[in-house]
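Hi R.,

Here's the input for the protoporphyrin IX containing FE complex you asked about:
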Amino acid sequence: MENLMEAGNPYHEVLLLAIVAGLASHQGFRKYEPTISGFLGVFFSLQAIIFLGIVIRHGSTLEYLVSGAMLTTMFGVIYLGVLGLSIVLYRVYLHPLRHYPGPKLSRITKIEWFFRARDGHFYLHVNKLHKKYGDVVRVGPNDIAFCDPSDTPLINGPLSKMAKGAHADGSPWAKARSVTFVKERAEHRARRRIWDQGFTTAALQQYEPRIASLLERMSDQFASRIGRGCGLGKIIVEPHANFRVEEINFADWTSFFAFDAMGDLGFGNDFGMVEKAMKMRIVWMTLPWCKYIVNYLPIDDEMKEQTKQFVKFGNERFDARKAKGTTRADIFSHLLAHDQESGGRILEVELREDAKAIIIAGSDTTSFALVAILYCLIQHEQAYEKLEKEIDALNAKGLIRGTTLGPEQAPYINGVINEALRLFPPAPEPTQRTYGESPYILNGKLIPPHTNCYVSVYTLARDERNFSAADKFIPERWIETARPEMFNHNTKAFVPFGSGLFNCAGRTLAQLELRQFIATLLYRFHFSAGRSFNPQSFLTSLRSNGTMESGGLPLLLTARNAKCSH
Ligand code: HEM
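And here is the predicted structure with protoporphyrin IX containing FE in place:
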């Protein structure tokens, strides 16, 4: 019996079929980008069809089965080759985004993006690309980053008609979507109406005493450590000073504070799992198609385990909080309420995910903001002195309630907060939006269907055209009467909390926490650079996994207006 491989015809037929299938698949995948499991499904189905076709046509003797298997393998290899080649050639020479400037590799694949994101430096990479290629850069095959403030509000601002993109496809382990991952505008708007009830002035006034009490407890901890010389930090006796100071890792303390605040006002605290869970999140947010096989990827096992622990922990905290009902005034009690416009409620499976969103979105961000503020202050003595002066005056008047510390009452506190958030946005990754299936004209630029548009938050705020002396810490720029004349000051370029429909739900709460922390703790204690503080090491330690983290901030702590038992 003639061997199939020697027969000639089947070989040519399979070759032709592989080429046609490869080209056809590419056309299909351009419209409906598959997940990795979807792709494998298509691939193995095609293999099975080819193999069965050969067997049905030529018989199922051992000889034909073996040559059929060889031909099927050949089909697979050629199919993958043609598909790959077709994708590469299309993305480089025919793709509608081909005229946008950007690195060659980014036109073909997001692999560099993935590695930069994994190392926590993607926002810096995009910043460099803008410097090299301009305000509009192709950062991925279907991805364009923008840093011109006349473009960016049309992407993520109040005027935008775009929805969230594939970044917000949601966690592979979740049974429902948290508010963060609701991509469609109408559905998101309904969900946010319920969320927003938890951040009104009235709601914040209920949270305020609880934040004050957390700060009291923290203040007591600091005071007792200075007094007794025990605790987290080590006591240092300054040679020419008649008071004792303590070196602390400030980043640890802000983390305790921010997690405790979310624990008290939201659901619970996580003791270190969030960081790992965020690292895992960046994997499937960057390459959404691989999210269902993320557990099998060669990445840190501890990270996988911690992520599962975090999911379990979030669920347990949710159950514990749900059992308490609506009697307690916290964010959760508002999420349990119904939407006053539509009468709808958040489903329990969704609430479970929202519980985790509160922990993830509300803790590391606020904690890092405080670290950034202190990092800036300890290096700018004059600014720190001005701030202490304002804080002392406010304390003398008894005006240290976070809800009353707006820019009019506390211009310098707010200037310092804004300036630190501008230089070090706690969520510095470019925010992704898409217009979906329709083409879109953005300020005269054609945005083809399925393009992901990104707002380069970090770059916008560090651009001299938007903020003069952009790399310098100058809180006065936020105070109209104190801003140096002729200073560029473009508030459209300042979006640390995002902007528009999908902006940060907890912005008002975060501002309340930051203001109250500064007005209370910086009144009672003075912080200065610790012995092991090195500005360069601090900067190189910064990583963003969606939210920013630092390698620590060693500070010396001395009492100002705190009662310590020396
Ligand atoms: C300094 C502190 C904070 C910063 C800088 C910050 C920043 C951000 C940013 C940039 C976004 C994404 C916006 C976008 O996609 O355009 C966001 C979303 C969000 N943030 Fe915050 N955040 C902070 C604190 C908080 C707090 C305390 C909470 C309280 C729970 C919170 C809850 C949320 C939620 C729920 C979302 C998702 C909103 C949505 O998709 O509708 N954030 N935040």
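One thing worth noting: Residues 4-94 form one domain.

Cheers,
M.
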